[in-house]
Write a structure and sequence with these properties.
Layout (H helix, E strand, L loop, with lengths): L16 H14 L6 H17 L3 H28 L1 H4 L17 H22 L5 H28 L3 H20 L9 H6 L7 H18 L15
Helix pairs in contact: 2-3, 3-6, 5-6, 5-7
The structure holds fe (ii) ion.
The site of fe (ii) ion has 5 residues, from helix 5 and helix 6.
Length: 239
């Protein structure tokens, strides 16, 4: 069993240098902050796409509610980062992962984005429940609940789409684009920083353990839609 440091840290506590580096790296990667211009522009594009592709007015209202919740998260992470590292507050950090840059030019693309990427957010927030950084542990249950809601929102719209043979064929086609990207959002299985994240209690699972938990969850949903699961290793960029 690898050694872990069981210390916890709260607002104002002096942070060991390596701990601060890892935490700031994690929050930079997170990107969900009011001062992050790229994040705000990304959600402007979500609203723009909803206006173009949502099949009815109710769907547009639901998408507006989803964006409102993401803005709530932005405020929560803003407050956390204000206490942690003010130089990060206004830093523009474009999404690094290619999954955020896949084309979203159809309603079904948008639904897969929510099903998969917000689910990634839910699984990460689930890990933060036990974070040794107490401000993050305190906000984790709210983020986790909301992100599962966003993922379920995408799933419910996909259920609608998969009711017709044309809709199911479109979803199956687009699944080959989104599925490998979704699994890749957990990073490589050989990340050199993982042991240090685990040591400091900023993570509780390796990338591969988190990825397999996620896969078990989402595969059940995809099979319930009547879709065929792509090969787990096909078209992957981070194994
Ligand atoms: Fe979300």
């Amino acid at each position: 069993m690898a050694e872990v440091c069981n210390r916890t840290f709260d607002i104002g506590d002096p942070l060991p240098e390596e701990y601060r580096d890892l935490l700031v790296r994690m929050m930079t990667h997170e990107g969900e902050r009011t001062g992050n211009l790229s994040f705000m522009l990304f959600f402007a594009s979500v609203l723009d796409n909803a206006g173009k592709y949502a099949p009815h007015d109710d769907a547009k209202l639901i998408m507006a509610g989803y964006v409102a919740e993401e803005m709530k998260h932005c405020i929560m992470f803003h407050r956390l980062v204000m206490e942690l590292d003010k130089s990060l507050v206004f830093k523009d950090t474009p999404f690094q992962h290619y999954a955020f840059h896949l084309s979203r030019d159809s309603w079904t693309d948008m639904n897969f984005f929510n099903l998969f990427l917000d689910l990634n957010g839910a699984f990460h927030a689930g890990e933060w429940r036990n974070s040794t950084y107490l401000p993050l542990a305190r906000m984790a249950p709210i983020i986790e609940r909301d992100e599962f809601g966003h993922s379920d929102m995408g799933y419910r719209f996909l259920q609608e789409t998969c009711k017709t043979p044309e809709g199911k064929a479109e979803a199956q086609e687009l699944l080959y684009k989104w599925y490998p990207a979704a699994l890749d959002t957990f990073g490589t299985s050989t990340s050199k920083r993982t042991p240090r994240f685990l040591y400091w209690g900023l993570k509780t699972k390796t990338n591969e353990e988190a990825r397999q938990d996620y896969k078990r969850y989402v595969d059940k949903k995809l099979l319930a839609l009547g879709l065929t699961l792509p090969d787990e290793k096909a078209n992957r960029r981070f194994l």
